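The protein record filed here:
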Amino acid sequence: MTHQFPVVRNSAVLRLLLAASFFAAVPAVHADARTPPAADPASSGSMSVVGAWSRATAGGATVGVVYFEVINAGSADTLLTIESPAAERTEMHATASVDGIMKMRPVASVDIPAGGRLSFQPGGLHAMLVGIKQPLQEGARLQVTLVFRRAGKLRFEAAIQGLGAANPPPATAVPPPPARFRLAVWPPRAESPSLRLLDFDGRARELADYRGRVLVIFFGFVRCPDACPAELFKLALAMRRLGPLSERMQVLFVTLDPERDTPQLLKSYVTAFDPRFVGLTGSSADIDRAAMSFYVEYARVGLGADYSIDHSTSTFVLDARGRLRLVGTLDATVDDWVHDLAAVAAE
């Protein structure tokens, strides 16, 4: 399921964000002709920043602020820290008015869902520049760097507006996603995952065993009634449409339910979609390590033999050199898969 709003790790901060905005009653201060335009959009991998702006500071002020919007065109990620050479340190804060009292609390990190947006704006989340080294001057540009858990660093500039500015600059068009792929692109600097499991014939398998082929990997379980068979069916259709090119690819299905998914059952299940598909299993500890390496989350739900498993539904694509390149979601079509797998195989 795709979240529409960022998940804030600190529950107290989350309550503040849901409270009334501190600036709701503040009259808008409209920019005049001297107001600098918004800084140009910046992007790195699947992450983009638009509408970045700051506010000029008065003499003697020791703190400043930065606002912007992050657009995530890829898989879920976490904003860990913010940096700027203009200040001794930069902190993420949440501001709100609760019962007439303005409250501001630090935020350790903020999650950004796949395909989601994260807004730093007056009255909510903002980046506080602590210990600014010189006053922020209207019309200048402020250098800022965002540090993500998976996407790495994204550098951009924020336009410094007037001392009393309370509104963002005019909206800037969002840069279009790369046209080369239709699936989400894995950040190029992020480390590729690994696994060590057994196939349904009992042979030890690692990702390196499939080097030279495009790998497509999905985590699920045989008793899954919805996402698992739907995704495997789409992949089987894509493989058929790819024709001879599909011989350069391998689809792997990793079970998250080794207790019930015996090797025999796993083989019968995955080969029903395509006889070339391979199922992987192993000890609970080995599967945990593999899932963690791919950032796959799962949990057993219910008691007794009829338990179910909640799990992530991303499908991962590794190129022939073993690098994780693309991440597919449930809304990806067979056409999307055919297009992107052919593009990766042609490299």
